[in-house]
Write a structure and sequence with these properties.
globular, four-stranded parallel β-sheet, 2 domains, alpha/beta, 310 residues, 15% strand, Rossmann fold
C-alpha cells in the first residue's frame, strides 16, 4: 500500500489485512506497562492539520509514538502557510526535510489526492485524515474494527448511518468500506441531508428512523455539521432531534445485540441522548481506543514493509 487516501477502491483483502494487524497490535500491547514497539524506529511521521481535531490528531500522534516513530505536528497557524505558502510547497518542503509519511486533514475535498500526486516522485507516503466532505478512511477502518469486535464478521450485517450524510466524509468512507466487507448499509436522513445520487451508491435509502431500527445490527449517528451548511436544511434543532435523534425510546427498538456508534464530537441532546451515548450498547469510547490501534496498523502497512513482523 503506497498511500491511504480513500476507502473507495480499497480492496477487501487490503482492508482486512489492516484490521487484522490492528487486532494483533492491540493484543500485543494489552497489559503492557510501557506501550512501545520498535517497529517504526527511525521513521518520521508529520501531521498537517488545517482543520480542528481532537480524536484523529491525538490518535495518529499516539500511533506513531507507540511504534517508536518521530512524530511532528504542523498546523496552518504555526507554519509558513500563515505567510501564504501553498499546500504544494509545504508538502514538498516536509518531504525534502525527511518525512516518511505525511498525514493531512484539509477543508478542501481532494486535497489528499493532490498531495499524493505532488509527492509521487518521492518516497513519502500520504494518509488522508479527512478532506472536506470527501472521505475519512481511517475513521471507517476504526468503525469496522469496532463492529468486528462487537458483532464478529461484518458480511450480512445491516448498518444504519443516520443524519447529516450530505456533509459527512465519515459516511462516505463507511458506505464504501462496509459494502466492500459485505455489510448492508442503510442511509437514514431527511431528503435535504442526502447527497445527490445517493440511490446510485451501494446502499438503501430511508427517511423514517423508527421503521429501520428493529432490523439494524448497528446504528451510526452522524454529527450535524452546521459549519458546512449554508441555508435551511431542517426547520430547527428540536425538530431534527424529534425525527432523527437517537433517544432512549428508539434505543429500545433496536435488537439487543445492536451496537451504537458515533464518530464524534457528539452533540448530546440533539443527535444522541446522553443516556444512549453512555449505554452498554454504545461503543463510542471503544471507537476512540480502536482508533489508535487501527492507525498504528495503517502506519505499519505504509512504512514497515510487507516482509517485516509487526
Amino acid at each position: 500500500m503506497r498511500h491511504l487516501l480513500a476507502t473507495d477502491g480499497l480492496a477487501a483483502d487490503q482492508a482486512t489485512a489492516v484490521l487484522d494487524t490492528a487486532d494483533e497490535l492491540k493484543r500485543t500491547l494489552l497489559g503492557r506497562e510501557v506501550r512501545k514497539l520498535p517497529t517504526l524506529r527511525g521513521r518520521t511521521v508529520i501531521t498537517m492539520f488545517y482543520e480542528n481535531s481532537t480524536r484523529t490528531r491525538v490518535s495518529f500522534e499516539l500511533a506513531g509514538k507507540w511504534m517508536s516513530a518521530d512524530v511532528i505536528n504542523v498546523s496552518a497557524g504555526g507554519s509558513s502557510v500563515g505567510k501564504g505558502e501553498s499546500l504544494r510547497d509545504t508538502a514538498l518542503t516536509l518531504s525534502a526535510a525527511g518525512a516518511d509519511c505525511v498525514i493531512i486533514r484539509h477543508p478542501a475535498s481532494g486535497a489528499a489526492h493532490r498531495l499524493s500526486g505532488w509527492l509521487a516522485e518521492t518516497p513519502t507516503a500520504v494518509v488522508n485524515a479527512g478532506d472536506g466532505t470527501h472521505e475519512h478512511p481511517t475513521q471507517a477502518l476504526l468503525d469496522a474494527a469496532t463492529l468486528r469486535e462487537r458483532l464478529g464478521e461484518l458480511a450480512g450485517r445491516r448498518v444504519g448511518i443516520v443524519g447529516d450524510v450530505l456533509h459527512s466524509r465519515v459516511a462516505r468512507s463507511n458506505v464504501h468500506l462496509l459494502a466492500t466487507l459485505g455489510a448492508e448499509v442503510v442511509l437514514v436522513a431527511p431528503p435535504t441531508l442526502l447527497p445527490p445520487g445517493a440511490e446510485s451508491l451501494p446502499v438503501t435509502v430511508a427517511h423514517h428512523l423508527d421503521a429501520e431500527l428493529p432490523a439494524l445490527d448497528a446504528v451510526m449517528m452522524l454529527r450535524v455539521q452546521t459549519e458546512r451548511m449554508h441555508g435551511g436544511f431542517f426547520p430547527s434543532a428540536r425538530e431534527y432531534s424529534i425525527a432523527y435523534g437517537l433517544n432512549e425510546a428508539r434505543l429500545r427498538l433496536l435488537p439487543e445485540h445492536a451496537v451504537v456508534l458515533h464518530p464524534g464530537p457528539m452533540l448530546r441532546g440533539m443527535e444522541i441522548a446522553p443516556a444512549v451515548a453512555d449505554a452498554p450498547q454504545s461503543a463510542i469510547i471503544e471507537q476512540v481506543r480502536n482508533g489508535v490501534h487501527v492507525r498504528m496498523a495503517v502506519l505499519y502497512h505504509l512504512l514497515a514493509g510487507e516482509g517485516e513482523a509487526a
